[in-house]
Write a structure and sequence with these properties.
This protein has 547 residues and is of the alpha/beta class. It has 21 helices and 16 strands. It has 4 domains: 11-242, 3-Layer(aba) Sandwich (Rossmann fold), CATH 3.40.50; 247-300, no CATH class; 309-384, Arc Repressor Mutant, subunit A, CATH 1.10.10; 399-545, no CATH class. The chain starts with 10 loop residues before the first helix and ends with a strand.
Length: 547
């Protein structure tokens, strides 16, 4: 069995070390057949973008072309007529994936260093440059502040074109990372002009450019980042083109499992790492699959590789309605939403744009297209459920170490300790809810539902369903029928003095309407009835069981 190199995104290293590799070289053929001059491919992080860009670099590069040719031995592209294009072009490959900074000055410093390192790869050009061009080259190569960095890619492409008498291939990996970082830390408007100029100069009217490929997570179109550019073909997660080259297909995963003699684990792996739909192609998360092949252990590999700063920022800025929709997703439901692929950062402040961000970032996936820009979406797999349980649910009720304790108290019927812990959370740690005098019952319903959804591996969590003589608020049905079941009803009186009365009224409503009838029918013997009344950040709880 081949060794597995986790996180290696250099094509040459993978081939020379004979590491596990799924042949994606047909992507080169498809790219050549497409006559578009500039391709933008957006996919979630760690879905093979950098590895594929590295593969393109070694395929096209005129430098070391004979040695690079050997890298493609016994791969699909070797037998393709397109293989005649191998080694014919000078290539500029630049990655912005590590360009992140919490302030504008540091961002410019990192950008200058990144361009300097790029130019260092081409210092052999200096001997062929005239005095003026040499001065421009050196100012960037030596990281001088006065260097014309926003036009550096166009300048370098002309230098290479003149040197080789061949148009260049431009590869820009993770083009949006510095832009997202600037948005996260509040200096997006200050840096936008730099990237607008850079992409405009190198991609529009550049006579030295044969083909350009850009990758990233988001499409940034209304921001003027690509202002005036009409030659960019966008391949988002919604488009069919190139859909099978980013992520692993069902057939590729099955073959890998056979190679490592664990094909019997397919169902478990499907549950945890499958579920993505890119342009109608069903794909698995490749980073999680390779980690599993190496460790033979189900774990949340992908969701542990990012700080999720942007997602948490947008969630904090969202209002309560977002959590109502997310609660449906947490319960395995599908919701219908507008996914505007032309969204921009300013629009992310609009609550509804969270669906665009979560879908593009890989935390939700498309199920079906309903109408233009309208899609049904869901959580793709168990790994993403884990993210929401750990990072989202716990964050919006407060990042407390005793989170497990409060749920254990509830499940054991220890409502005295549960009340004590919940009071602390309500008074000091709730981060995403504004429990003021206008907060209605739905606010508190979603708040408690968010807590209880962390129990979904032990309980079926149902909300706002018909049962008995009415519609219950929340039911927890144990998967192990010997454990306690729970029916919860919420009230939100208009004053604190009515909390006790309303909690008892909620309890009475559960009994009067026989909300527990389905639990009993499915063999749950002990059922707790819980009435909860809230006013601002104060609450009262009443309870009893059916025995």
């Amino acid at each position: 069995m081949k060794p597995i190199g986790i996180g290696i995104d250099d094509f040459r290293e993978i081939i020379l070390t004979k590491s596990f590799y799924v042949d994606k070289t047909k992507f080169i053929e498809e790219l050549e057949k497409d006559t578009s001059k500039v391709q933008l491919i957006t996919r979630p992080r760690r879905f093979g973008k950098s590895l594929n860009m590295s593969m393109l670099k070694y395929f096209y590069n005129i430098e070391n072309r004979d040695k690079n040719r050997e890298l493609f031995s016994n791969l699909y592209i070797e037998k393709s007529p397109i293989f005649s294009e191998q080694g014919k072009c000078p290539v500029i490959f630049i990655s912005f994936k590590d360009i992140k900074a919490d302030n504008l000055e540091e961002m410019y410093l990192q950008l200058r260093r990144n361009f300097s390192e790029l130019f260092d790869n081409y210092k052999f050009l200096r001997e062929s440059l005239d005095e003026r061009a040499l001065e421009i080259f050196d100012s960037i190569w030596k990281e001088k502040v006065e260097g014309n960095y926003s036009n550096s890619l166009k300048f370098l492409s002309k230098c290479l074109n003149d040197y080789y008498s061949q148009e260049i291939i431009l590869l820009i990996d993770e083009y949006d990372t510095p832009i997202i970082s600037a948005y996260e830390y509040g200096y997006y408007d200050e840096i936008k002009t730099f990237f607008t100029t850079m992409y405009g100069s190198v991609l529009k009217g550049n006579l030295s450019l044969r083909k350009a490929v850009l990758t990233g997570i988001m499409r940034i179109s209304k921001e003027n980042i690509f202002s005036g550019l009409n030659n960019i073909k966008v391949n988002s997660i919604l488009e069919r083109d190139f859909s099978e080259y980013f992520g692993l297909t069902e057939e590729e995963v099955e073959q890998a499992l056979k190679e490592y003699r664990i094909e019997y684990k397919l169902n478990e792996i499907q549950t945890w790492y499958n579920g993505y739909n890119f342009g109608g192609t069903r794909v698995y998360n490749p980073f999680s699959i390779t980690n599993y092949l190496k460790r033979k252990k189900i774990m949340p590999y992908w969701v542990n590789t990012s700080s999720n700063t942007l997602i948490n920022k947008v969630l904090k800025e969202a209002n309560n309605s977002i959590f109502k929709e997310l609660s449906k997703l947490f319960q395995g439901e599908v919701i219908e939403k507008i996914i505007d692929i032309y969204s921009n950062f300013n629009e992310l402040r609009n609550t509804e744009q969270i669906w665009y961000l979560l879908t593009n970032a890989g935390y939700l996936t498309i199920v079906d297209e309903i109408d233009f820009d309208e899609y049904s979406i869901r959580i793709p797999n168990e790994e993403i459920y884990y993210f929401f349980e750990r990072d989202f649910i716990k964050n919006f009720i407060g990042d407390r170490r005793d989170f497990k304790d409060i749920l254990d108290y509830f499940l054991e019927g220890d409502f005295e300790n549960f009340t004590y812990e919940l009071e602390k959370i309500m008074l000091t740690n709730v981060s995403c809810f504004d429990f003021d005098s206008n907060a209605d019952e739905a606010y508190y319903h979603v708040f408690i539902l968010g807590m209880m959804l962390a129990l979904r591996r032990e309980y079926y969590v149902s909300s706002n369903r018909e049962a008995g003589r009415g519609r219950f608020d929340l039911i927890l049905e144990p998967r192990d029928k010997s454990r306690n079941g729970f029916v919860i009803e919420f009230k939100a009186p208009d004053s604190e003095k009515n909390l006790e009365k309303e909690s008892q009224e909620a309890l009475s409503q559960i009994e009067k309407n026989f909300y527990d009838v389905e639990l009993k029918a499915r063999g749950v013997e002990r059922v707790y009835y819980v009435g909860m009344a809230f006013y601002k950040r104060e609450f009262k709880l009443a309870w009893k069981n059916n025995l």
